[in-house]
Design a protein that fits this description.
By secondary structure, this protein is α/β, with parallel strands linked by helices. It has 13 helices and nine strands. A hairpin with a 5-residue loop joins strand 2 and strand 3. 37% of the residues are buried.
């Protein structure tokens, strides 16, 4: 009996030692975490903290900073041309009030392209310093001087700049004030993307708050990626995107919680988040695996991504 007891004690010791050995330690389940690549750095209206927004100057600054792509806004002029402009009116970012004092409220669709391209769409940046980057010494005197007289580019000019620099762009189609202009903005944008050989699905994505535009883009050219912009959560997002035929969702950073973003990203939803200028929020989003982060400070996000 005594011998059997000693035998049992020895077996018990062996079991304890085996359990304590490194080889027997629980293996961490890496499969529980999906490894996503770093997000694309998307320069919002170009690097608009360093140059006047939606101009080729802002695009150049974003390209120089190392952004993966830039985002721009498109509107239709009175003569049915596509111009890069965010606002419905020309008075915030151009000197329309000075040049055309009797044309209040200076709506884009009331001006021809030729009229718009006479405007100075750069000096306001020097005057307003909207992101305090001039005050902080991050915009040189030479750059400030070069912005004086900066014109609003056409969509053609913006796309050609992107193509010639082997770069990428997100083209946001702004909601237009009439069904006639709705048709023009979609048809002309799609035709131009194709004409320039940029409908390969790699160089250009088309986005809009007006999701009907996205259906029309896909109907005209299924090869062009489309992205649904939203400022609030969308119920049953996978089904909604499928119904639209959209390839991605571009939500405002407050639309969903980080947790929910991570869950839907793990299900395969492509997200490009806007507009993220706070470093702490940038860091939090990195853990969700989002595909892209749109920011006015691409230079800051790029440096953040370099950190170990």
């Amino acid at each position: 009996m005594k011998g059997r007891f000693i035998h049992l004690v020895i077996i018990a010791c062996i079991i304890v030692l085996a359990a304590c050995s490194p080889a027997a330690q629980p293996v961490r389940e890496e499969t529980a975490t999906i490894a996503f690549p770093p997000p694309l750095v998307i320069a919002h209206r170009g690097a608009r903290s360093l140059a006047p927004e939606n101009t080729l100057a802002a695009a150049r600054k974003a390209l120089e900073a190392g952004a993966d792509m830039w985002e721009l806004d498109v509107a239709v002029t009175a003569d049915d041309e596509l111009v890069v402009m965010h606002d419905d009116t020309l008075d915030r970012t151009c000197n329309a009030q000075d040049v055309f004092p009797d044309r209040d409220p200076w709506q884009v669709w009331d001006f021809t392209l030729a009229e718009i391209q006479t405007l100075d769409c750069g000096s306001w940046f020097n005057d307003k310093d909207p992101f305090d980057q001039i005050e902080k010494g991050n915009v040189s005197e030479a750059d400030q001087q070069s912005y004086v007289g900066e014109p609003a580019p056409t969509l053609r000019q913006a796309l050609e700049f992107t193509r010639d620099n082997d770069w990428r762009v997100n083209v946001e189609l702004k909601k237009q004030p009439s069904s006639e202009l709705d048709q023009i903005i979609v048809e002309k944008a799609v035709a131009l993307i194709k004409e320039l050989g940029m409908d390969d699905g790699q160089r250009v994505a088309v986005s809009s708050f007006k999701h009907e535009y996205l259906k029309e883009v896909k109907a005209l050219n299924p090869a062009i990626p489309t992205q649904a912009i939203t400022s609030k959560a969308i119920h049953d997002l996978p089904a909604y995107l499928e119904e639209l035929g959209a390839d991605a969702c571009n939500p405002k950073v407050t639309a969903w919680s980080y947790k929910r973003l991570g869950e839907m990203r793990a299900q395969g939803i492509v997200f490009n988040i806007w507009t993220v200028n706070d470093e702490l929020i940038m860091k939090a989003l990195l853990n969700t695996g989002v595909n892209g982060i749109t920011t006015d400070y691409p230079q800051i996000l790029i440096e953040l991504l370099k950190q170990p």
